[in-house]
Amino acid sequence: MEASQGEESLPDVVREAEAAYEESYILEPLHSPITNIEGLNDEWQKRAQKELQEKVEWRQRDIQALRDLVEAEDNLCCATDDQFLLKFLRAKKFDYEKAFKMVQRYCAMRIKSPTNFAKSLPSQCASIFDCQLQNILPHRDRLARRILMFRSGKWDITTTTPEDIFSCNYLCLELLAREQKNQISGIVAIVDMADFGWYHMMQLSVDYVKNMVSLIQSTFPLRFREIHIVNESYLFDVVFTLMKPFLTEKIRNRIRFHGADLDSLHKYISPSILPEEYGGEQPPFDNSDMVREINQMEDYFVGLQSNIYQNHLVPLDLYEKDSHPLPAYCMSGTLPD
Fold it and tell me: Could you tell me the CATH number of the domain that includes residue 274?
């Protein structure tokens, strides 16, 4: 496969550390309470300083600096509490300007693509979650990171739209971003392409793919440290070709392709924490625990809907004008103006 052939030339930046963390492989239920900013133990505080340049003695100063930028922005309506703003500072390693740009994009995303958020409440997603597309594994990986799984072949196009999937994925990311440990460590994604067919691909537009990529790499306050693609077929070459122009070099270098070689996947993610379908030692894939927690967060997600630009007045310079070299790959819809 074209995508797989390119893997050998990519610098291996995803396996940054082999040292075990205290909470590696820990079973940590998703219903754990939100940790107070001051409640992280010494190990996580040291990790935040090492990886994100976060210093306890400067934290309130940094949060206030970002708050000042947010409050000075015309038409920007969003939360300004410490925990909300700290997510963005951590995602951008305490670079104020980059964190502020991410806050802007985060608040503009509902305005920019409202259909992607049409079902962004747990009460609207029950039937979609029943399809078992998404799950967050209960154990952390070797670097104490959460693992988000997505099974594209479980998508039933007769009942579920791409926008429905976007909404559900967004709920999963918000659940992950609520945990401070994830804000510090970042997360790992596994995308299973088994049974992904032409009928799936025909539902995807360039605009949709661009929004999906934007969510991952420049809009949502979580760092994707590794992205593993498994069970991909020749069709994935087409999908990846469609995505690649929108991917930064940093994200491209964090993608690994494994095909049906589970031993290859296990070099990065221990089988001790994987579901049995992936050569793992855990029970079969089951998202019921994750869905139960998301369903308890209805009010939380309602509150997030108020993080927007008022009257749709998004700054004109927030997004650069995008063009795509392969408009023929636009399966549905057209290129954006």
Answer: 3.40.525.10
